[in-house]
UniProtKB/TrEMBL annotation:
Taxonomy, superkingdom: Bacteria
Residue segments, region Disordered: 119-144
Protein name from the UniProt record: Competence protein CoiA-like family protein
């Protein structure tokens, strides 16, 4: 996209070309970037600054309407749409779903190169908790969910108590990773409105409609009860302390303790790679001390419980 409309002042919308927008002061860019929409379909848009390796600044959107003239089909979009189809079919075919937090992100991202993989392996031996471990770290709250190999049996037993047929339950319990779930939500699957039982561990289950929450609808929960929060990232601060969702201006996601592991795991080489990315995480929402900003904290800073999908440069 070469143009975007800024709705910072909704009574006076301003259309910016990407060339004009990148010449604004850093302060104005940070102020306006969360108020951008596509000029053709009004889908929420993002701004990506020019990269160090020569990629030009650009506007993009993860929310284009299918018939939008700015929408450019790609292999990545086709894959995301296929994920939405598969998840919608899962809702029809399954009695319950287990979220597999241990499933690794796809390795087809070119930016996740051998150097990053080697560094990640090194970090696994020097950082606590272990990034690839789903074991319970020290000092976790007592009610913290723990994913383990008994989850399928627990889900089966719970469904039997609900009156499901024993012969069918094993076949009707789906298991999916965060990547497919995020892509399906971004492409309009019915997951977030479904009554499907979703297990986040062997003990805790939720109706999908109560578990999956877009950042725009995030509210502090009673007793810090966790949810699966999802949406897109507008930008990250210079110190890599906070992710700022594009879907809500009063929500922040602290990443100061996991910034480097996040970059390595998802191929986020600089701040630009966060801009416009889709994200899903299991965490709790609460007010800051001033009660003017909602904070969504990744559960125990467990990097297995977050997934980030980078935008395409051509969007």
């Amino acid at each position: 996209m070469l143009d975007a409309i800024c709705l910072f002042d909704e009574s006076n919308p301003v259309t910016y070309s990407v060339f004009k927008f990148q010449k604004l002061s850093d302060g104005d860019i940070e102020k306006y970037r969360q108020a951008l929409v596509c000029p053709a379909c009004a889908g929420k848009a993002y701004y990506r600054k020019a990269s160090k390796d020569g990629k030009a600044a650009c506007f993009g959107s993860r929310y284009h309407q299918a018939d939008c003239r700015e929408f450019k089909p790609s292999l990545a979009k086709e894959r995301e749409e296929q994920h939405a189809i598969e998840v919608n079919q899962l809702l029809v075919d399954s009695d319950a779903m287990i979220i597999d937090f241990s499933r690794q992100p796809s390795l087809n991202r070119a930016s996740v190169n051998r150097r990053n993989q080697a560094q990640l392996a090194k970090n696994e031996h020097t950082q606590k908790p272990d990034l690839n471990s789903t074991s319970k770290p020290e000092n976790k709250p007592a009610e913290e969910p723990v994913l383990n190999t008994g989850i399928e049996q627990a889900a089966t037993e719970a469904l039997e108590l609900d009156g499901a047929q024993t012969a069918d339950t094993e076949k009707r319990i789906a298991k999916e990773g965060l990547e497919k779930l995020l892509h399906s939500l971004m492409r309009g699957s019915e997951l977030a409105e479904s009554d499907l039982w979703v297990y986040t561990d062997e003990k805790y289950r939720w109706r999908a409609k109560n578990l999956f929450v877009n950042f725009a609808d995030a509210e502090p929960t009673e007793a810090g009860s966790p949810r699966m929060y999802w949406g897109t990232i507008s930008h990250v601060d210079k110190e890599l302390l906070w992710l700022n969702p594009a879907d809500s201006k009063d929500v922040g996601i602290p990443i100061d303790k996991i910034a480097e592991p996040l970059k390595l795991r998802f191929g986020l080489e600089d701040r630009r790679d966060f801009e416009g990315a889709a994200i899903i995480l299991f965490g709790k929402c609460f007010w800051n001390k001033a009660k003017n900003r909602k904070i969504i904290q990744l559960w125990s800073n467990d990097i297995n419980r977050i997934f980030i999908s980078k935008p395409e440069d051509s969007e």
